Amino acid sequence: TPVEGEGYLSSLNAEQRAAVEHGEGAVAGPLLVIAGAGSGKTNTLAHRVAHLIVKGADPRRILLMTFSRRAASEMRSRVERIAARVLGDKAAALTEGLTWAGTFHAVGARLLRDYALEIGLDPAFTIHDREDSADLMNLVRHELGLSKTESRFPAKGTCLAIYSRVVNAQDELEPILAKSFPWCMGWAEELKQLFAAYVDAKQAQNVLDYDDLLLWWAQMCGEAAIAEHLGGRFDHILVDEYQDTNRLQASILLALKPDGAGLTVVGDDAQSIYSFRAAEVRNILDFPGHFAELARVVTLDRNYRSTDVILAAANAVIGEASERFTKNLWTERSSRDLPRLVTVRDEAEQANYVADQVLEAREEGVALKAQAVLFRAAHHSGPLEIELTRRNMPFVKFGGLKFLDAAHVKDVLAVLRFAENPKDRVAAFRVMQLIPGIGPSAAGHALEAMERALDPALGLQFFKAPARAEADWPGFVELYSGLRTKSSWPADLERVRLWYEPHLERIHEDAGTRRADLLQLEQIAAGYSSRERFLTDLTLDPPDATSDEAGPPHLDEDYLILSTIHSAKGQEWTKVFVLNAVDGCIPSDLAVGERDEIEEERRLLYVAMTRAKDSLHLITPQRFFVHGQAARGDRHVYASRTRFITEPMLERFAQTAWPPPSQGASGRSPQPNIRVDLKAKMRGMWR
Ligand code: ATP
Ligand code: MG
After folding, report:
1. Over 206-267, what HEC string results?
2. Prediction ipTM score
3. pLDDT digits over 182-195, tens only?
4. Is 81 helix (H, G, I), strand (E, B) or coil?
5. Residues within 5 Å of ion ligand 2 by Cβ?
6. Does residue 38 have a known ligand-binding role?
7. CA–CA dist 145, 194 (Å, integer)
8. How far apart are CA 486 and CA 431, in angstroms?
């Protein structure tokens, strides 16, 4: 069908349009869009995908990689809306076909299942989240005797962090230790031994951790025949937020599209904020060089998001950065509402201030959802969460604690995982030990019985549980056999919940609210076609926590967004509050020292500021609470304004103190000047 006019591209500026139409009619060569915040990179990407589809590309052969599952689904609905302007009703069916949209990890998991048999992997593998991985690392560590003999051996979390960094940075252990974990340098040999055993354990148990999803994918691409087959499945590969990919991810892209044909990457080097996860800003800077300068590079310089005063302040902050490719942006949105720099006494006052301001804005018609509160570390929002709860203001928190982190949710998912993969020891131990009378040794024996049997469920049936567990064991065996042999989705989850409920009541006092979470989980499950897809998605990108305990958001309500700056990437709100804009938080006092780390903190502040469309408040408490690190313990510290806002920049902000000096703390009016002895008066009442 002929395209009726191309009005759907008319909202784009010339550069955006060039990026959207790049390579049209021929095989598109590699394309890089590199530009500052709010310049329409993501919007351009969505238009490009829509345009490709409108021009006849097969959506099933488009691979779209974004930073989160949420970003992927937003991208898909944007593509659909854009395409609908030309294709009308047909757009929905076409964008349905855009199933290869998600994070690198999620896409990796799917491809690995597809190609499992070709690469010697059992397709029933299960995926460990970071906590499971740390548990397995710990198990292996104990088996090697590394924790017993030497109490100063790095903790399980540190071991996992080191392992993960080595894998993602594609570097040797020693330089990684020297650069990022200097206090572990004496342990290099033991760590190598540990990591080798950890890899063996994962393979024996048929589990993959997060890093494996990239590592196996990259290794798979190392086989030329598979790489070619894999690359041939996709006509177009598009990646958003490319500045935050690591070497492994770049190597995957290059293996899939060695000549860059059909490859589009989009990003902003000034927003690179994930080097602690081995993200490599050189990926984006070196992109053109990989293709012998054949790549098309599009830069965008107009910002459509923020007012000029907000942009000027953000530009000033990033202007001091030591290295930067993208240039300053301009905007046509002029405003006199300068970004505010608000001094408050402490974090409690900060919470009060934010809650007041949010409500005031809502009175003026700015929905809660159009406002966001951003912070450097997940725990910084604690006092605010308490204040919001006290005032009954609903919120959703992105980053930090997730729905999945709740013990009861993990228990239930572990049952499903164990049913999916009987070799997954971390899941098996977690599940069996829920049963009274089953400890680690009985669980270990049960697992051995399962391994010996041809069919694991039968092995479990023949295992003789200890007498103490006699009452509860048969119920578990029945559940497990049912999940293995008569699995039906999503009914499986309900079966697990019914089995789990008595245990829940025994273990937790607040069983009622936790049960409600599990019912929510069933609602989420209903949206999935299979147990395996559900488990994979939830493990890779769990729903965020909300104000009503740990449940996922009810999407029809209005709620305030609380988010770490990292999780706020790519998003925008009418009104943005940044908590703790003080030295020690931004930059984090964990980063103080190394120049690279300080530079990354500056970019973080830039990311936070550029999320705001109309109104931006940076708040600086004079004192703030520091959670115990090393020997220093929890304490209050006196803070000063973040070093990234220097004296000359102050004219770009409206500086205020809150509460205004005329009122006392907490906005109360001054104490009345009277003295009476109420105690005496009370005693007198009975005399
Ligand atoms: P970030 O770096 O933060 O990810 P970005 O470069 O991806 O930002 P977008 O989120 O795509 O920017 O766009 C920012 C805002 O500008 C969005 O509200 C988008 O709808 C709007 N926008 C982008 N391009 C145009 C345009 N040509 N005309 C009008 N609005 C636009
Ligand atoms: Mg974007």
Report:
1. CEEEHHHHHHHHHHHHCCHHHHHHHHHCCCEEEECCHHHCEHHHHHHHHHHCCCCCCEEEEE
2. 0.99
3. 888 989 999 999 99
4. helix
5. 41-42, 570
6. yes
7. 10
8. 20
